[in-house]
Amino acid sequence: MADLHDRWVAERRNEHYYKLAKKLNYRSRASFKLIQIDNRFHIFKPGDAVVDLGACPGGWLQVAQERTWPNGKVIGVDLRYIKPIEGVETILGDITEDSTMIELMDRFGGKADVVLSDMAPNIAGHYSMDHARSINLCMYAVDVCDRILKKEGKLVMKVFMGDMFDSLMTELKERFQSVKVHSPDASRDTSSEVYVICQGFYAKSSIRMKKPEVEAKERKHRIEDAVRNAKAAIEAAKTPEEVDERLHAIMRNIHEVCVRYGTQEDGYVNYVKGANIAG
């Protein structure tokens, strides 16, 4: 009975935030996650420059715009089109490409005070793969911080819990004075998502942006190398079980390379098929 009651309470709460978002003209119930995070951790201040990664449909952009007013600068980036929001700029582009980073910095006229990421992978239903994809998206956000976040800046990002979480935390603690894990009330109880709140960016890295044509050439070479190494590993396998084991590891590796060097979310599958890695 307790489980049924807890489920009923959770469903009612989720319905509450959904209806409240509609009532207050927020584009998604996720707006309340960011509101609750800001109320607790004081992420925004008036006049901040904010970039929101994976910003579609725009619920977090709305909150950021409200809480950095007046004189704030809020830019959303997504591969999908974001309907216009007053006082907010959007970029239709790939956040993994330096060309997008350069456009962001040009628009800011400098660097950002806050980086937001509510990005989530397309759920495949395989927990370890979904978790790995979530970590990859988080590393996107970390790379963005290394490029465009000001010293003492802040990062708020979503991540799915799993066995790679500790390695992500290590990366973050090397870059920020304070790293905290938080689950806002507006999150679903059944979700494995948490939010990592990072403050006091050290800004140790100084990454030089590459010209788009150089970046594209490097991306192509990196992906070709990953496919070539994958084929060699499969050919070296001696049993069907070893083939399966290596193929799983290879798929993850190719995915990570493609994610890092700017192909679409599941683009690595096309490279695998095209190269006939699995025979």
Structural commentary:
- With about 280 residues, the protein is of the alpha/beta class.
- Helix content is about 50%, strand content about 20%.
- It is built from nine helices and seven strands.
- The protein has helices at about 1-25, 30-40, 60-70, 100-110, 125-150, 165-175, 210-235, 240-260, 265-275; strands at about 50-55, 75-80, 90, 110-115, 150-160, 175-180, 195-200.
- A seven-stranded mixed beta sheet has the order 3-2-1-4-5-7-6, with helices on both faces.
- α5 packs parallel to α8 (about 240-260) and α8 (about 240-260) packs across α9 (about 265-275).
- The longest helix is centred in the last third of the chain and has 25 residues, at about 210-235.
- The protein is globular.
- It starts with a helix and ends with a helix.
- Mean pLDDT is about 80; it is low at about 260-279.
Structural class: alpha/beta
Percent strand equals 15-25%
Q: Are there runs of 5+ residues with pLDDT below 50, and where?
A: 262-279
Number of helices: 9
What fraction, in percent, of the residue positions are helical? 40-55%
N-to-C span = 52 Å
Give me the side-by-side strand order of the main sheet. Answer: 3-2-1-4-5-7-6
Q: Using only CA atoms, what is the Rg?
A: 20 Å
Gross geometry = globular
The quaternary structure here is single chain
Q: How confident overall, as mean pLDDT? A: 81
Largest sheet: 7 strands, mixed
How do the helices and strands follow one another from N- to C-terminus? HHEHEEHEHEHEEHHH
Number of strands: 7
